[in-house]
Predict the structure.
Amino acid sequence: MSNASHATSRFYVTTPIYYVNDRPHIGHIYTTLLADMLARHRRLCGEDVFFLTGTDEHAAKVADAAREREMTPQQWADRNAAEFERTFGELGIGNDDFIRTSQQRHTERVKRYVKQLLDSGDVYPGEYEGWYDTGQEEYVPEHKAKETDYKSAVSGRPLIRRKEESYFFRLSAYSQQLLTLLEGGQIGGQFFRVQPEARRNEVVARIREGLNDVPISRHAASEEDARWGVSMPGDDKHTIYVWIDALFNYLSTVDTDERRAYWPADLHMIGKEILWFHAVIWPALLMALDRPLPRQVYAHSFWISEGRKMSKSLGNFIDLEKIQGYVEEFGLDALRWFLATQGPLGSTDADFAHDKFLDVYNSDLANTVGNCASRVSNMINRYFDGRLPEHDGHVEISDWHAHSAERVVDEYQQAMRWGQLNRAAAAAMDLVRDIDAYIEETQPYRLAKDPDQRVKVATILYNCAQALHIASLLLWPLMPGKMEQLWEHIGCGHYTRALSERGRGDFVQWAQWGKLPPGTPVTKGKALFPRVNK
Ligand code: MSP
């Protein structure tokens, strides 16, 4: 069963499903925006995209929180899931579905998958023994228990040695296959890539230490607790462990007649703390189910804030209100740009600092993208009455031309293919900077004073406009609103309409040099990114 190619180009991208107890914050919004950018890029390329996000609801703490508020777990989950959905909607995130693990479409399928695993012997009943934290209602792994001298890291009370019946997943049987895949090999034509490299190496090292089978069910503490979760097929006393339930969302959502072709997922975008589940448990579960494997897992690092770990008590937590403040003051696209270019896509954490935000806004957006767009359109207005002039192939000006744009587009496409949005953004930015450098070098504003140089000025501005047009297509997935505004000014409003009516574009056609025909009306419009003072 190969996961290597689709007949039609389809692209299935997911985010983690978020715990419904939390309110949306920078972490959730970051991962979801990254997925949104990748989804938009593929739509622009004309692919058939499916972008999934949602909420993870069957944690015991959801039932606890609901009890404290005298609500049912479902009521509490409904309320908080709605908050996530509303927030993502307000932030213009274009997900195609929003999966909630409490929905029947999901729970039914989870039971079916686990039943298949029971039948194949990949899930079997056994006994689990370990250090239990009664306050937290969870087992603590041996090495962590040792670190805290066998006391709870939360309450400080002694951990209890506890033994209970549990169902286990035969993870140990898949070590060799997992190693083959994670080290870049293929199994039956399938590959499985984990990024970044450093994170993948950590996972490989841990697998080499040996894999144990993992418990995948818990004994329900109360009847209410048992009802809040998916029960083990054929054994109501056991509830399927929330993580196993959650991982299946990626498959269950598209396991329908209309959507089956989207599987396997192309990319699971996640944070580093949940990589083990996605790079080890998840592919092993899929192998046990004999389903194709996702092609890629990308585990980004974390945002910290003003140089320190985010915390509510330090007052540096980037919560929803703070994010909304940035959107109001600088616009949604400026936030998207900052997150994509300054974010923790590599293996180190990244700092969300207010001063840095202002610097990046001014240098990348106001002084580079915005300034370049207004320079080019102003000159076309001033010297050619707002119509794109003709290019004269005979004038010699510079060897800066179509090829440099082509190189940038290739680099950008490569980066996008692997989810490396920061590299893609840098490529797009290089093109914009090249336009500025070209203007400095050829000085059309000086040549324009001499009527004999008119053909040369026309050619220079033609080149600038073609490059700007290509740059706008490269930047659109990251800053759709602003680029649509720019498209209006350079006679490309039809792109916006094609994207909203057909849901896809035609990047390869559109991003060709010379696509903007001479005579195209070019208007000045207001500044895309007004400068801000510190
Ligand atoms: N419910 C599980 C995931 C199940 S997926 C099958 C979960 N949920 S969560 O609500 O805790 O969300 C975790 C995710 O939020 C991280 O993987 C990451 O995508 C994002 N982030 C949370 N805090 C973050 C930062 N400080 N920085 C960047 N992203 C982080 O785990």
In short: The first helix runs from residue 26 to 44. Residues 55 and 100 are 5 Å apart (CA to CA). The two ends are 56 Å apart (CA to CA).
